[in-house]
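Typical record is below.
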Amino acid sequence: MSLAINWVISGIAIVITAYLLPGIHLSGFKAALLTALALGLINAFIKPVLSLLTLPLTVMTLGLFSLVLNALLIMLTAKLVPGFQVQGFLWAVAFSVVLTITNWILSIFKQ
């Protein structure tokens, strides 16, 4: 049950973030739920491998490369999920930052 609640909260966070950023286009809540699912799977399986492979670069940039990695994974998600579009790399970076903040705020209300 907790997994389903987290999934819906992530979907709501994606809708809010897409509403706040004009470079992010979302066709509806179903697309937001699919985006949350895809982003969760990508973050669970692909991101750890890429984080390990790019660890030296992340250390050399004092962690800033992790923003680049997050943006690239968001752009991958946009390619995979119909109804979710990102207009460019900088919008993907902004989406990553705003989504993190939105998820954090919504998680406060979940408790």
Notes: The longest strand covers residues 24-26.
